[in-house]
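From: lab user (bench 3)
To: helpdesk
Subject: output format question, protein + FE2/S2 (inorganic) cluster

Hello, I'm new to running complex predictions and I'm not sure whether the block I got back is the full result or only part of it. Here's what I submitted:
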Amino acid sequence: MISKTEITAKNEAFLRRITELSGVSITRCEQCGICSVACPLVSGMDISPAEMMRTVQLGQEEVTSTKTIWVCASCFTCTVRCPRGLDPSKVAEALRQIELRKAIDYMDISTIPAEEMRQLPQIALVSAFRKLTG
Amino acid sequence: MKIPYYPGCSLKTTGKNLEVSAIAAAKTLGIEMVEIPKWNCCGTVFSLTEDDLMHHVAPVRNLLRVQEMSGNGSVDTPNKMVTLCSMCFNTMKSAAGRVSRNAEDLVKINSFMNLEEDYKGKVQVLHLLEIIRDMGFDKVKEKVSRPLNGLSVAPYYGCMLLRPADIGIDDPEDPTIGKDLFEALGADVVDNPYKKVCCGAFHTVNDKSLVADLGYEILTRAQKAGGEAITTSCPLCAFNLDNRQKEISAAHPEFKQMPVFYFSQLMALAFGLGEEECMFEGNYVDPRPLLKSKNLL
Amino acid sequence: MEDKKDIMQIIADANKSVTTGIDSADIEHWVQIHIMGRAYKVPAGLTIMQAMEYAGYKFITSAGCRAGFCGACATMYRKKGEYQLQTAMACQTRVEDGMYLVQIPFAPAQEAKYDVTKESYAASTLLEHYPEIARCVACNTCTKACPQDLEVMDYIQDALRGDYASAAERSFDCIMCGLCAIRCPAEITQFNVGMLARRMYGRCGMAEPEQAKKQLAVIAEGKYEEDFKRLLAADLAELQQRYAEREREAD
Ligand code: SF4
Ligand code: SF4
Ligand code: SF4
Ligand code: SF4
Ligand code: SF4
Ligand code: SF4
Ligand code: FES
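Helpdesk reply: Thanks, we reran it on our side. This is the complete output you should expect:
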C-alpha cells in the first residue's frame, strides 16, 4: 500500500534536533544504501544504517527504540564510504545520546559476570560504558 | 628522538606485551618514549556529538601534560606525542583536532579545567607506526638481525588506525603500512580481505557472540589467504581476536586457533631482542610453537 | 523584634557549652551565614559546626570527632557572588560572611563485599568490584571537592590501570567523608575504591612492617593475657570507674 507520509511539526523538530546534535546534514542523504552495504554490523541490526538515516529524515522518534543505534560500533566504515560525505556514525551517536540523556542506560554494568570482569581489558569496559551508559 | 609517550590503561595490564615490546623496538630505532607523568584514561572512544565537550576533557588534559613536557625540556620533540593503542591514538588525535580547529571549544574546556594552565591547542598526536614509516623502512631493515623468513603474516588494521580519513595514518581503503613494515622484517606478508573490518569493539562486553562471529570471519579469511598469524596494534582488537578464540572454537569446532601478535612483538623478535622484550607469554594463543617451527625462537 | 531577640538569646545561651562559652556581649565581629536557606548572624571565628550550634542546631548526626579525622561533618557551601560550590569539614572550617551552607550527613555508597584474603592482586579486582571506575571522565571534580586535598582523580586513574601502590598512597589520608562521591558525574564511590586498593596493597604489595611483626610476636607470647582476663572479669561499676580514670590526651 502506498500512502503519503505527513511531516508534522514534531517530526521536523526531531530532525532538527538530531541534525544539530550530530552535525550531519541528514536531509542530504540520497538513500543510496552504500552505508548499509559497508556496515560490518548490519546483520545484527533491525533497520539498516540507510533506513536509520531515512527515519530521521522523516523525523520519526521511534528510531530511538531500534536495536540499530546500540549495535553500531562507531567503526567509521560508513563515514569513509558515504558518497555525499555524510556520517551515519554521528547520527547513531546522537540517537544514543537522546536516550542516555534521559537516564536510560542500554546495559547494566553490574550484571557483567565476575569471570568476564577478570579478563576484560579496561579499553573494552571504558568504551562500552561510554557508548552504552549515560 | 625523545618523545612524550601516552600508554593508556590497557597497556599497563592486558596489553603489557604491546607496551614492553614497542618501547624496546622503538629504542632500537633510536626513539626514546618518555611516559607522560600523571596521564589519565583518554576515554577510549571519541565523543561524536556536537555539544558534548565533557568527554573531551580527558584527552585534552593529557595533551596539556605533553605541552608541559615540551616546556620543561624533558623531551626534544616539542608538542608531539606518540601512542601505541589504536583507540587512544584515535581519541587523542580527534580531540586534539577538534580543539585546535574550534577556538570556542578550547576556551570552554580550558575554563572548565580552571586549576590547570591553559592548553594552547598545538600538540600533534602520532602513532608509533607513522613515526617508523616516516623514518623509512630501510632504517628498520638495517636493524633486523633475525629476519622473520618463512613466517606468513596477515596484517590487521581494524578501524581506529584508518578511519575517519582525516585521523587515520594510512589510506583508509588500501593501507600498506603493515605490509611494508613486516616485509622489512623479512616476513611473508599475505593480504587479508578482512583487514579493515571492525572486530566488534566494545560489544565484547555486552554481546560476545557478535564479536566471536566477526572474529571468526577475520581470522578464517586470514587463514584462507595463507596467513599463519595476524597482527594488530590495539589491545581491544587483540582481546577480541586472540582471547575470544575460546568462544570462536566453542561455536566452530573445526576452527584452528592462530596467534595474534602486536606489530611491536614481531619488531622486537626480528631486532633480536630477548623474551622479556617480546613477551610472547602475554598472548592468549601461544605463538611460540609457530615461531619455533620457523626456527625463530 | 524584642521577642525575636529573646529567642535568639535563649538559643545562644542553650548552646554556650558547645560554643566554648561565648557571651554575645564579648563578641565584636559578626558574620551572616545561611543554613539551609535561613539567615543567621553568628560570631566570626567560629567553625561551621560551632556556628550551627550557636544558631540552635543540634548535631545528632554529621558530627563525630570534632577534630578533622572522622569524616562525619561534610559540608557544602557557596559564597555570595561566587559560582563555585565549595566543600569543607564543618569542624575544621571557619565561617565566612555570606556562606550558604548545608550539611551532607551521609553519602549513599556502593560498597562491595569481598574477602581481601581471597582476592587476586590484579588490576581486574578493582574493576570487578567497582566497574564504574571505567566511567571516569577525568573531570577532576572529585579532587576539587576533597577537603583533605587528595588527588582523588589520580587515585581513581591509578585504580583503573591497576596501580595499587599509587592508589593506596594517594588515597591514604582519605577520611571517608563522601564529598567526592556526591560530586562525581560518573557516579563513582571513590573512597571505597581507595579503601579496597589500600587493603589489597597492604596485604599483597607492601613489605610487612617490622614494628607490627615484633608486636604480634609479643602478643603471641601472652604478654597481655593477664590484663585481658582482668578486664573480662570486671563488673560494670569497675569498668565505669576505669573509663572515668583512663589516661587521656588533652582536648
Ligand atoms: S559506524 Fe556504525 S553504522 Fe557505520 S558502518 Fe560502523 S557500525 Fe555500521
Ligand atoms: S551512504 Fe550516505 S547518502 Fe548513501 S544512504 Fe548512507 S548516508 Fe545516505
Ligand atoms: S583507550 Fe584504552 S587503553 Fe587507551 S587509555 Fe583509554 S582505556 Fe585506556
Ligand atoms: S578493530 Fe575493533 S578494537 Fe580495533 S579499532 Fe576497530 S573496533 Fe577497535
Ligand atoms: S569526579 Fe568522577 S569522573 Fe570526575 S575525575 Fe573524579 S572520579 Fe573521574
Ligand atoms: S577522597 Fe573523597 S571521601 Fe576521601 S576525604 Fe577526599 S572527598 Fe572525602
Ligand atoms: S566531626 Fe569528625 S571530621 Fe569533623
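A quick orientation on your result: Chain C has a mean pLDDT of 91. Let us know if anything else is unclear.
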